[in-house]
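Technical note accompanying the year-one report. For the benefit of new consortium partners, we illustrate the data format agreed upon in the data management plan: each record pairs a sequence with a C-alpha cell string. No post-processing was applied to the example shown here.
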Amino acid sequence: MTLPALKGNHKIYSMLTLLIGASYLTYYYHVVLKTDIIFTHLFYIPIALACIWWKRRGIVVALFLGAMLLVSHALFVSNFSLIHDVFRSLMFVAAAVVVALLSEQVERANILYRTVADSSHTGIYIVQDGKFRYLNRNTARHAGYAAEDMTKMDPLTVVHPDDRKRVEENAYSMLKGKLSTPYEYRIIEKDGQIRYIMETVTPVEYQGERALLDTANILRQTFRESDISARMGGDEFAVLAIDVADMNPEILSDRLEQIIAVHNTKVNRSHRLSMSWGAATYDPADHKSLDHLMSEADELMYLRKKAKLKISQ
C-alpha cells in the first residue's frame, strides 16, 4: 500500500472514530440522561476536520450529525422543544460550508503559487534547516543542476567560497529587516562557470504551523509555568525565565537540546525540528534595557546558527 493510501485510510479511521464518539454522546445524553443539554459543541471537531480534509465532500459529515441529532431527539427526548436542535443542525451545516470554502481557497492559492513560481523567470526557493525544501525550475536551471539533486545539497555549496560569509550576513540582515535592497553574489554552476545573481530574502512559513506548534510544546516542556514564552513573529520565540540568576544558561540549553532530540525520535514528521537560540542574563547592577538583552541573545543565536551550518557542511 502506498504512503498516500495509508494517509487516506488514517483520515477515514480517525473520522469513523470521531463519529462513533459523537453517536455515543448523543445516545448517552438522550437515552441515558433523558436530557437535551448542550453537548454538541464537540461535533464541530469532526465537521472541521472533514471539511479540511475533503473540502465540500466533508459537508456530508455535518449533514449526518445534524440528521442523527434530530432523529434521536424525536425518538428519545420528544418532550423537549425541537427548535434548539434544529438550530444546532443548521449551524453544523453553516460551519461546514465556511470551513470547506476556506479550505478550497487555501488549496487554490497553493496551486496558484506553485504554478506562478514554476513558470517564473526568477529563481524562487525555500531553505529550511540548511536544506532546499522547495525550488522552482529556474533556480535549478540557473545553477545548472537538476532540482532533485539540489534538494540533497547544502544551499551554500553553489555559492562562491569567497562570498559565502557575506551572503549569510546579508540574508540574516534582510530577514531581520536591517537590509531592504537586493544584494549580489557569485554562484558556481555545475560545469564550473561563475554566474552573478541578485537576491532578496523574506521569511515564510513552510509546513510552519505544525513546526510552530511543536516548538511551542517543546518550550512548554523545557521551561516552567512561571516563565513567560511568546512568539515574536515568523519562526522566532522569546522566553523570559524568572528567578534563574544563579542558574547556568547552559543547563537550560542542554535540557532544550534533549527535549528536541526526544521529539525528533518519537514524532513522525516529514521534517526534523531544529532550533538555534541565544541567552542573555539580566544583571540589576548593569541596568541593561530589555531591547539590549534581546539584541545580545539574538547575536548569540546567530552565532549558534552559523556554527550549526558549518558542522553540517
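Partners are asked to follow this layout when depositing records. The radius of gyration is 26 Å.
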